[in-house]
């Protein structure tokens, strides 16, 4: 069965510093991978997705993620964060050909002035 | 363009009362529909998903049920709420043309 692990529940970082949010997944078949962002009391918004091809994926708001098949990871990065990036970030996996999306427990990013 | 409507935004219900949360999608047909629950520190838990009218798959045995009476309508129900049913409930959809799910704005349910 597929699963997703987000190792960091909270990540504090100063404004304009780089950040990496970690995500590891487990699956016996090929997968699609996603990062979503959630602002307080709102739904989830897609940041980026990996389907196939280039392992470096660029998304909205300056975020990017790198798919590493050997390490079963899909870490999210941003070279310089802003206060407005403060939110909760979720990694998700979907096995190709299935209808289900499995989410990690989320990482709360807090950007400090 | 496609949109998803989820209501109410917030709900406070006493223990033992019934529940009905509704989600509708506009601008698409035959979507896959999902109900997720978000509890503090537990991420998003998939509760139900549906690939068509009347077709419901339950992921977690619990006090809740789901129904899909129309193609673009997905309803989450309970006959008697428990305190543990409190949480943030999110409806989502996707079509065969998409690989990602699109989420509604959620319903904050507090059972007291």
* Distance from first to last alpha carbon of chain A: 41 Å
Sheet having the most strands of chain A: 6 strands, mixed
Helix content of chain B: under 10%
Q: In sequence order, what are the helices and strands of chain A, one letter per element?
A: EEEEEEEEEEEE
Q: In terms of quaternary structure, what is this?
A: heterodimer
* Proportion in β-strands of chain A: over 45%
Q: Show unreliable segments of chain A.
A: none
**Shape category of chain A:** globular
Total number of helices of chain A: 0
The most extensive interface, with participating residues per chain, is:
A-B, 24 and 25 residues
> Proportion of β residues of chain B?
over 45%
Structural class of chain B: mainly beta
Shape of chain B: globular
List the helices and strands and how they pair.
The complex is a heterodimer of chains A (113) and B (112).
Chain A: E1 3-5, E2 10-14, E3 19-21, E4 24-26, E5 31-38, E6 44-50, E7 56-58, E8 64-68, E9 73-78, E10 87-95, E11 102-103, E12 107-112
Parallel strand pairs in A: 2-12
Antiparallel strand pairs in A: 1-4, 3-9, 5-6, 5-10, 7-8, 8-9, 10-11, 10-12
Chain B: E1 3-7, E2 10-13, E3 19-26, E4 32-38, E5 44-52, E6 55-58, E7 65-70, E8 73-78, E9 87-94, E10 102-103, E11 107-111
Parallel strand pairs in B: 2-11
Antiparallel strand pairs in B: 1-3, 3-8, 4-5, 4-9, 5-6, 7-8, 9-10, 9-11
List its salient traits.
heterodimer; A: mainly beta; six-stranded mixed sheet; 12 strands; 53% strand; B: 112 residues; mainly beta; seven-stranded mixed sheet; four-stranded antiparallel sheet; 57% strand
Task: Provide a descriptive summary of the structure in words.
The complex is a heterodimer of chains A (113) and B (112). With 113 residues, chain A is an all-beta fold. Helices cover 0% and strands 53% of the residues of chain A. Chain A contains no helices and twelve strands. In chain A, the strands form three sheets. In chain A, strands 2, 5, 6, 10, 11 and 12 form a six-stranded mixed sheet that branches. A four-stranded antiparallel sheet of chain A has the order 3-9-8-7, with no helix packed on it. In chain A, strands 1-4 form a two-stranded antiparallel sheet. With 112 residues, chain B is mostly beta strands. In chain B, the strands form two sheets. In chain B, strands 2, 4, 5, 6, 9, 10 and 11 form a seven-stranded mixed sheet that branches. A four-stranded antiparallel sheet of chain B has the order 1-3-8-7, with no helix packed on it. In chain B, a hairpin with a 7-residue loop joins strand 9 and strand 10 (102-103). Chain A binds chain B through residues 6, 9, 32, 34, 36, 41-46, 49, 51, 90, 92, 94, 99-106, and chain B through 6, 32, 34, 36, 41-44, 46, 49, 51, 59, 88, 90, 92, 94, 99-106, 108.
